[in-house]
Design goal:
The protein is an alpha/beta fold. It has helices at about 15-30, 40-45, 80-90, 105-115, 140-160, 175-185, 200-210, 255-270, 290-310, 325-330, 340-345, and strands spanning about 1-5, 35, 50, 95-100, 120-125, 165-170, 190, 195-200, 215-220, 225-230, 240-245, 250-255, 275, 315-320, 320-325. The strands form 4 sheets. Strands 3-2-1-4-5-14-15 form a 7-stranded mixed sheet, with helices on both faces. Helix 6 runs parallel beside helix 11 and helix 7 (about 200-210) crosses helix 8 (about 255-270). The longest helix has 22 residues, at about 140-160. Bound molecules: 6-O-phosphono-beta-D-fructofuranose (F6P). 6-O-phosphono-beta-D-fructofuranose binds near residues 10, 127, 128, 223 and 253.
C-alpha cells in the first residue's frame, strides 16, 4: 500500500513522533510505502512537494520539535479547483490512502475529502487541546509545562518587586493551556474565554488579596479571553487581535490582551504591573514524554486503521485508551474547559 502523510496547521511538539510511528509500523509490519507530503495541504495542491519516507529519514527525530514535513495553513477549499487538484495529485502520486495530522482546520479538510471518497485517517494535533472527542491532543502537555515553568519564573520576580505580573498564554478560543498551567503554576487569577469576567471584579480580587498581606500577584490570561472594560458590559465586544488579517481558515491572529490587562490593572489598582506574552515559545522545542508517547500511540493506531481499511476515522484518547472515532463528528465541535476544572481554579483565585 502507498500511504501519504501530511502535517497541517500550527506546528506542535510531538508531530515527529507521529510521523516516525506511522512510517515504522507501515514499513516494518505492513510492507507498505510511506510518502511525506510537504507543507500540509499545499503539498498535494502543488506538484513536487512530496518525498518518500524511509527508515533513514525518520531516524533521530523523536525528540525534535516542529515537523520534518513542514506545515502550512493552506485551505484547499479556498482555492479554485482545490479539491480536484488534491484528488488528481493523489492519483498521480499513486497514493492509496492518506494520514492527515492536524487540528480542527486540517482535519476539517480531511473530513470533506473523506466525504468525497478519499481513504483517510486523521490524527488530532494542537497545543490548544480544543479538539472534540479526544481527551487530549498531543502537544498540549508540552505547552502546559512550558507555560507552567514560565509562571514559576514570573512568580519569583513578581514577589521580589511587589508587582502584579500578567502572563498571556495561547489557546485560541479555549482556555485549556491557561487553566491547566495556571492551576499547576499556582496563579492567583486565571482568565479564560469560557468565563468572561468584568475587569472591576478582577481588580477587586487583587485588592482583597493585597489587603490580606500579599504584595504580589500572578494573573494568567488566555489569548482569547474576553474582558469587560466597561462596568455595564459583561465582556469586551471583540477579542484583542494583533491584526485584522485572516488566515485561509478565517482565523484572526489573537494576542495582546495581556498588555491591555496589565495597563488597566495598574491604572485601576495602583499596583505596579508588568506583562509577558509567551507566544510561540509554547509551541517550539522538544516534546514532553507524555506527548512523545501520545504521538507514538496515535501514529501506530493510525497506521493500523489504514491497513485495516477503517477510513474516515480520527484516532483519539479516551481515558487511557486509543479509540477510533468518526472524523466528521470529531471536527463538528469544539472542546471547551468545563465547570469541574474551572471550579478548582476558583478555590485558588485571589
Ligand atoms: O492553534 C495553535 C495556535 O498556536 C494558537 O494557540 C494560536 O492562536 C495560533 O495557533 C497562532 O497561529 P499562527 O501560527 O498562524 O500565528
Amino acid at each position: 500500500m502507498n500511504i501519504g502523510i501530511l502535517t497541517g496547521g500550527g506546528d506542535c511538539p510531538g508531530l515527529n513522533a507521529v510521523i516516525r510511528a506511522v512510517v515504522r509500523k507501515s514499513i516494518l509490519f505492513y510492507n507498505s510505502k510511506v510518502v511525506g507530503i510537504l507543507e500540509g495541504w499545499r503539498g498535494l495542491l502543488e506538484e513536487g512537494l512530496t518525498e518518500e519516507l524511509d527508515l533513514e529519514k525518520i531516524s533521530g527525530i523523536l525528540h525534535k520539535g516542529g515537523t520534518i514535513l513542514k506545515t502550512s495553513r493552506t485551505n484547499p477549499y479556498k482555492i479554485p479547483d482545490g479539491e480536484k487538484r488534491i484528488l488528481e495529485n493523489k492519483r498521480k502520486k499513486g497514493l492509496d490512502a492518506l494520514v492527515a495530522v492536524g487540528g480542527e482546520d486540517t482535519l476539517g479538510v480531511a473530513a470533506k475529502l473523506s466525504q468525497a471518497g478519499v481513504k483517510i485517517v486523521g490524527v488530532p494535533k494542537t497545543i490548544d487541546n480544543d479538539l472534540d472527542m479526544t481527551d487530549y491532543t498531543f502537544g498540549f502537555d508540552t505547552a502546559v509545562n512550558i507555560a507552567m515553568e514560565a509562571i514559576d519564573r514570573v512568580h519569583t520576580t513578581a514577589e521580589s518587586h511587589n508587582r502584579v505580573m500578567v502572563v498571556e498564554v495561547m489557546g485560541r478560543h479555549t482556555g485549556w493551556i491557561a487553566i491547566e498551567a495556571g492551576i499547576a503554576g499556582g496563579a492567583d487569577i486565571i482568565l479564560i474565554p469560557e468565563k468572561p469576567v468584568n475587569l472591576d471584579k478582577i481588580c477587586e480580587n487583587l485588592r482583597k488579596r493585597h489587603e490580606r498581606g500579599r504584595d504580589f500577584s500572578v494573573v494568567v490570561v488566555a489569548e482569547g479571553a474576553k474582558i469587560a472594560l466597561d462596568e455595564k458590559k459583561r465582556e469586551k465586544e471583540t477579542f484583542i487581535i494583533q491584526d485584522e488579517c485572516k488566515d485561509a481558515f478565517g482565523h484572526v491572529r489573537l494576542g495582546g490582551i495581556g498588555k491591555l490587562l496589565a495597563e488597566e490593572i495598574e491604572k485601576r489598582t495602583g499596583f505596579e504591573t508588568r506583562f509577558v506574552i509567551l507566544g510561540y515559545v509554547q509551541r517550539g522545542g522538544s516534546p514532553t514524554a507524555f506527548d512523545r508517547l501520545l504521538g507514538t500511540r496515535f501514529g501506530i493506531a493510525a497506521a493500523d486503521l489504514v491497513h485495516q481499511g477503517n477510513f474516515g476515522k480520527m484516532v483519539s484518547l479516551q481515558g487511557n485508551k486509543i479509540v477510533p472515532v468518526d472524523l466528521t463528528e470529531a471536527v463538528a465541535g469544539t472542546k471547551y474547559v468545563g465547570e469541574e476544572l474551572y471550579s478548582i481554579a476558583e478555590v485558588f483565585s485571589a
